[in-house]
Amino acid sequence: MNADQVLDVAMKAYWHSDPADVSVNAICQMAGISKPSLYREFGSEDGLTRAALDRYADQVLAEMFVILHGGKGLHATLAALIDFASDDPRMETGCLFYKMRAGKHRLGPDTRARVEEMDAVAQAAYAAFLQTARDAGEWPGGLSIEVGTKYLGEQVALAITMRASGEEPARIREMLTLALSVFTRP
Amino acid sequence: MNADQVLDVAMKAYWHSDPADVSVNAICQMAGISKPSLYREFGSEDGLTRAALDRYADQVLAEMFVILHGGKGLHATLAALIDFASDDPRMETGCLFYKMRAGKHRLGPDTRARVEEMDAVAQAAYAAFLQTARDAGEWPGGLSIEVGTKYLGEQVALAITMRASGEEPARIREMLTLALSVFTRP
DNA sequence: ACGTTTCTATACCGACTGGTACGAATATCG
DNA sequence: CGATATTCGTACCAGTCGGTATAGAAACGT
User: Which are the contacts of A137, defined by CB distance < 8 A and separation ≥ 6?
Assistant: First the structure.
């Protein structure tokens, strides 16, 4: 049993349920390895959750940055974000990153630091995207970049969190489209 | 030590922290009573959390229904909702109801049922409010009552959840105002 | 084939959880 | 005042948590 395979099992377990509700014992059982093996590989539960989060960011979250940095213009990029949050099958049970962010206080220090770092990176990506749109004159509203960034990030997070609670994708799409319409209206 | 006093301590502990992070032992210590006393009064942890939620609904959540049923018209009611979610000191550490709803799977069956029941009541209040506005011609948009209801509820929940994470009230007000502007624009 | 070394699995540790049995102290009532 | 009923607090139960010591099995080099 490879270390990456174990990490895959852990990542998916955390992802489909909730990091706080999956014990290391359960992960060992699911992965078919012993606890000492897991602790030799990852050091602690904090190390495991952090590694799982990193793997998740590489495999799944990177997609969102591709969309944001695609340079497709305001309308097309927002539409792609809406597609991603509402319909992408990878978001069917929510987003591990947002789940961890929501239960930040239950995480170990390393994992929590990584979550905060990723949050900052995501905010920066949102801000750069909005700034580009403003520079291109596509988004003339009086809204500040700062508030727009936070708003956009929270709306996407809300949509993905609703996916995790089993809400219908069509409904989520409708609501997210509504929320983001503030960027494309006069 | 009265039963209501114990309930007050429990309610505030759940409210300021998170129901899943407060043990019955901690509550007994805070309230200065013994576990047997608590169990005699409330039967189980589920009974305690449920009673605390009920008390919270009476003391705090009722305010929101007053706002929704005030019959002040679309603009004024939305403004009052924004005030309540953004600036009311009672929402400074978030809302116990929304905290419980977010961690629904960690609750006992009675408390969970009560949360779902309250959620339905809140949705109905939002729906009635929006229907009234539509009947009065104040809200002519093509948006369905159903989606508008869910959207309104989730945006208020998001704002209050941000209060719990220490976000600045002014920022929250700005974002919630932005989100709810979809109801008052052509 | 044998000795060494590395890895694994089991069984355990202390701390905590929700929940309870039972003796002691207190309050109530005749 | 004294008998009774009730509440209180301690100490405990079984279970789970994250984390680890230790004995045994497997792999390796010679």
Answer: none
How crowded is residue B66: how many other Cβ atoms within 10 Å of its Cβ? Answer: 10
Query: Closest CA to C20 C1' — which residue?
Result: B36
Whether residue B130 contacts residue B66, with contact meaning beta carbons closer than 8 Å, is answered with: no
Q: Encoding tokens for residue B114? A: 């009560």
Query: Mind spelling out the 3-state secondary structure of A71-95?
Result: CCCHHHHHHHHHHHHHHCHHHCCCC
- At A87, give phi and psi (nearest 5°): -120, -20
Q: What local confidence, expressed as pLDDT, does residue A2 receive?
A: 77
Q: For residue A110, count CB atoms less than 10 angstroms from its CB and return exposed for 0-12, middle for 13-18, buried for 19 or more.
A: middle
Eight-class DSSP state of B181: G
A10, A48 Cβ separation under 8 angstroms: yes
pLDDT class of B1 with cuts at 50, 70, 90: low
Write out which nucleotides of chain D lie closer than 7 A to a protein Cβ: 7-11, 16-22
* Token pair in block for residue A28: 């060992």
Task: Mark the ranges of chain A whose per-residue pLDDT is less than 50.
Answer: none
Element containing residue A42 per DSSP (H, E): helix A35-42
Q: Across the interface, which of A102, A150, A174 has its CB nearest the CB of B147?
A: A174
Burial of A125 from C-beta contacts in 10 A (0-12 / 13-18 / 19+): middle
